[in-house]
Amino acid sequence: MYALIEDGSISKLITNPKAMVIGDVRYPAKIFQLWSKSELNAIGIYEVVFDNSNKKDEKWYINTNQSFDFDGNEVTASYGTATPKAHADSLWTQEDSDDGNLPDDKEVGDVKVEGLKTQLIRTLKQQVSNELARTDWYITRNTEKETAIPSAISTHRDAVRTKQAEMETAITNASDTPALETLYTYTTTDGVQSRPLGELPTLES
Hints:
Blueprint: E1 2-6, E2 9-14, E3 20-22, E4 25-27, H1 31-34, H2 37-42, E5 45-51, E6 61-62, E7 67-70, E8 75-78, E9 83-84, E10 90-91, H3 94-98, E11 111-113, H4 116-133, H5 136-145, H6 151-173, H7 177-184, E12 187-189, E13 192-194
Parallel strand pairs: 5-8
Antiparallel strand pairs: 1-2, 1-5, 3-4, 6-9, 7-8, 10-11, 12-13
């Protein structure tokens, strides 16, 4: 990306190289490939330098729009301070009701907007359901045919539910969005990747 500087400020952002008229001169698109940085700067064209130091993972944060700044020597695109997504649910309040904003199918205290905790626990429950579904046929066979469920299968299913409870507790107890992000952040120790939240047990094939 490039920016056109006129009268000391950014007048246009150039997302794709193209022919341009600057002043009374028409320049072909190939100048972006053939000209040096100093030659482009001389006619007011600067390549944009991206500063992503404030940009955060959009799973956990809402980033600002990029702002563009020219300091006389360089054009920089940067982000402002990211806002953490809400970690807890927001609820419909009496004020919402008094203002006439409470939907007919909702009551004061009902969930208005789900927070990250609710979303993450729902995803975890689906992952647990998928893992248990792999061995549900043993349960069905036991019900229909009274065939014993192998102890390894019962042990695995119990382990999945135990780990699920531990993970849900960790998510629920997280104090804020950065704490949730930490639970899900992988680190590598001695070549092994892991995260504080841990993983659901999987059945060896």
